[in-house]
Amino acid sequence: MTEYIIKDKIFYKKVFAIAIPMAMQNLINVGVSILDTVMLGQLGEIAMSASSLAGQVGFTYMIMNLGLTAGAGVLTSQYWGRRDTASIRKVLSMTYKISMIFAAVFTLASLLFPVQIMTIFTNDSQVISSGAVYVRIMAFSFFISGFTMTSFNILRTVGTVKIAMYTYGVSFFVNVFFNYALIFGHFGMPALGIAGAALATLIARFAEFVIAFVYIFKLDKKICFTFGDIMRKIDLTIFRIYMKHGAPVLCNEVLWSLGSSMLSVIMGHMSKEFVAANSICSVMFQCTSVITQGISAAAGVLAGNTIGEGKYKLAKQQSYTMFAISIFLGIVCSIVVYALSNPLVSFYNITEQTRLIALELLKVMAVLTLFQTISGINMFGTLRGGGDSKFVLFFDVSSMWLFCVPLGWLSGLVLEWPVWAVCICLRSGDIFKCFGAIARIMSGKWIKDVTRSKEQIAEIQQ
Predict the structure, then answer these.
(1) What is the percentage of the chain residues whose pLDDT exceeds 90?
(2) Burial of 75 by CB count in 10 Å (0-12 exposed, 13-18 middle, 19+ buried)?
(3) 56 phi and psi angles, rounded to 5 deg
């Protein structure tokens, strides 16, 4: 397979030019999660569990918005390969409008039904009460965070990635300051506990929005988006292309996020100790996956740009290279998770039962991280970026709803298996997706040029 591996240094410079800023951005976001869990962990397991479960509402919106923009990114990355900025502006305008519709739904639901939302995830009355406070405050973040995520995710597809890293760096320090001040009552501010954590996050989201707004409308020189663009009607030709190649990505993320919420429901009904332990493990998982997510983003952007340029053979060679990189990173990440398990758990003020559960979960995750890394880079990077969104939709959704959800429910709530076995069941979909991604990459059938007609593609291939 070595003859298929790219040796050109320019390719790797392009990969790291996208991957490193993305990894730094993800690392900053993980840093916020770590500080949230550590600070709230000082208040006890109820506060930590409540914020973890309440955060599923924002997580679901984030995943849906990610699906929306990832689907749009399939188009914009290929349009950028052709330097068709007029079409990119049309896609971005459409994406903003759909994102705001999602935001309106989540805002109303969070303001009107916070208690009912929390009862979906847990039956612990204290966790429900605390979580409802968090949900109600975070309701005001959806419109502004939707604009920010949409802007930065589309900018990434045209190679603009550093602005997101800088923005989230500012957001990190804003969040840390107000977390410390509002959770514990420092600098003359009230001690609000979990409500303080939600307010700190809301303030940080507003800071992100301001920077994104100024950059998109004043500083960007590639897309050159204007207020006139955002007001224009949705282009029907663009919309039809999106429905064919981008909408499956959105459906993918919606169905996956619903499944992820179901996993939280399962864990929430097992015990608050399991929820607290899983929130600790999630931090470790996020820490080790920051580079993976950066490489995945680079794989998707490069696949889309290369196909947009009409270089299909090069796109296939790039996919083999990214596959080799994914195996190497998977092994490294697995070793890191195992090695840092004990030091991570020691940071938290938790009961002995929660500590033991967390350590058991982390050991299982050390193995599963290998499969997750391979599937993440190849399926959500190369295959999705190459336009093969329907295949990714099938494997991602079926893995969640045919494996993770039913096996997690059966093992955790019915059979009450040991923690390690429940963890394997809850994440069994990663194994399924890993082998599916490998088979699809090797087949070469994933290359879909969504910006050209069949006649134009045939002419290029001759």
Answers:
(1) 32
(2) buried
(3) -65, -30
